[in-house]
Each structure stands twice: as C-alpha cells, then as structure tokens.
Design brief:
Length: 286
C-alpha cells in the first residue's frame, strides 16, 4: 500500500449553513483522509465544447458551445491509519504509558511492580477506549455517505475540496457516486477496520451564476427577483373613448415613436383599431 494520502474536506461556506450537522451523531462536517490506490482518472464528462455546424455551400463552422464539467475518479482505502479517530488512539496510548510510570514502584529486589487495584481499574478503561476506537473506521465511512445527502437546511449536498497528490485540487467538487468494495472487519465487534471504495467526483459549477453570485446564489431567489423586477417595469393602461396608439404614446412618452414599441409588446397588428376597454402594458420610461 502506498502513502499517497488525500484529504476531502466539505466546505461549509458553500452549504449555506456554518453548523451543518452530518450523519456523525452531533459532529459537524469533518475532513476524511484516504489512501489513494494506483492513480486517478481526471477528464471532462458529457457533451459540450466545440461543435461542428453545417453551412450550405460553405465549409462547416466550428462553434464553441460550452465546457463539460471535469470528472475525477479514483480507488481509495480507509484504514486505522487515516480514520478520523486516529487522534484518540494516539492520546490513549500516551496515557497508558504514563499510567505505567505513575502507578509503579521499584521493589527491594529491583523489580518493577504496580499498584494493582488502581492501575488495573484505570488501564482497563484505557484498554476499552483503544479496543473500541483503534480499529473502527465507521466514522469516516459514514461521513462519506452523508456527503451524498443534502445538507440540513439547504437543498443540496455539500461542496468538497480535495488535497493531496491528485489532479484537480484547484477545483471544487461534489460527490457524484460512492461504491464500497471489500472490507476487513474486527472479528469481535464487526466494525470495519479497513474499507476499499470507488469515488467519483464532479466539478462543482453553480447554475446560472457569475463570480459575484458564486457563494450564495439561489436560482429560485434570482427568478423571483427578476420576475418582480420585470413586473415593476410595466404599467397597465385601459383604453378610453377616442384613444389611439399615437395619442397614448404622446401622453406617456411625449413622442409618437413609441407606437411600434406599444404595439409589439401587446401583439397589436391593427394599429388603427383599438377597442375601448383594452388593457395595454406600457413600458416604464427610463
């Protein structure tokens, strides 16, 4: 197994909820460290890019349409060396060594002995911690699974950042698919101590957003704002006896040049016939 460790970090900045809870009980979204197996596949997925457009009696044109999002695929291994619980394991091991020196004494014959009652009770607690945590990688596996569900309080799963000896670290990603393969389990607890997985990430591109909208853009909010804005750009006028498009244009805009604008907006084909009571949408003059 290589030491090509990569780290995937959920970005709360892009979830809209700085305290977004994950499936890990009451913990927040945390980075997950994995051991890369072999190499990663990094390419563009789907359609897009340059397209050939046929033109009669001319050489076909090459037209730029769009760019497909990048796709990142790789196999990885999660084990006790990169589990989120590894920090607990190290600390309990240190405490265990300190216990040996704290509760021990040198007898008259020069041998090392322990205060059996005190040391046994405390060390048993430490051993229990080690037994429960040293080998379990369930927390990291659950974290990966939770990133395929929408963040509490939002409508989408989290956006991810990846670090390590792998392409695409300059981009932002979303977890497209996750496949767990072979696993090694602790024979007593049944918990996983090593898990292989296949991960597919897609480049994150917010819909209909520009750089100023990137962090907090909402298509629904934008649609509502645009609709309200459009409604405010028009007023409704009810045609009265003697009105013509020219008189209405002169009344609202001071110029008959707006006749065609009013007719086009209201789908009027016969400008000479304007029935009384007709409701016209009139553009607000800028």
């Amino acid at each position: 197994m290589s030491n090509s460790y990569i780290t995937i970090t959920p970005l709360s900045l892009f979830t809209g909820n700085l305290k977004a809870p994950s499936a890990l009980r009451n913990n927040f979204y945390q980075p997950v460290k994995l051991n890369l197996v072999d190499y990663a596949t990094y390419n563009q997925s789907g359609s897009g890019g340059w397209q050939v457009v046929d033109r009669p009696k001319m050489v076909a044109a090459t037209q730029w349409y769009d760019r497909s999002p990048f796709q990142l695929q790789f196999d990885a291994i999660i084990d006790q060396n990169n589990s989120n619980m590894s920090g607990i394991n190290a600390s309990t091991s240190i405490v265990s060594e300190q216990l040996k020196s704290t509760y021990s004494s040198i007898g008259s014959d020069g041998t090392l002995s322990y205060d059996s009652n005190t040391y046994f009770n405390v060390s048993t607690t430490i051993d229990s911690l080690n037994s429960a945590n040293t080998f379990s990688i369930e927390d990291s596996c659950i974290a990966l699974e939770s990133w395929m569900d929408k963040v509490d309080g939002t409508l989408t799963p989290p956006v991810l950042q990846i670090d390590g000896p792998i392409p695409g670290t300059q981009r932002l990603w979303v977890l497209y698919s996750l496949e767990f393969d072979d696993a090694v389990r602790d024979p007593l607890s049944g918990l996983r101590i090593q898990q292989t997985c296949k991960i597919t990430l897609y480049e994150y591109q917010p819909p209909y957003a520009n750089q100023t909208q990137f962090y907090n853009y909402s298509p629904t909010s934008q649609w509502t704002q645009t609709t309200q804005s459009n409604l405010q750009q028009y007023s409704i006028y009810t045609v009265k006896q003697g009105d013509t498009l020219i008189s209405i244009a002169n009344q609202f805009y001071g110029s008959a040049t707006y006749v065609n604008n009013i007719a086009t907006l209201n789908n009027i084909t016969d400008t000479a016939n304007l029935p009384v009571g007709t409701k016209l949408s009139l553009p607000v003059s800028s």
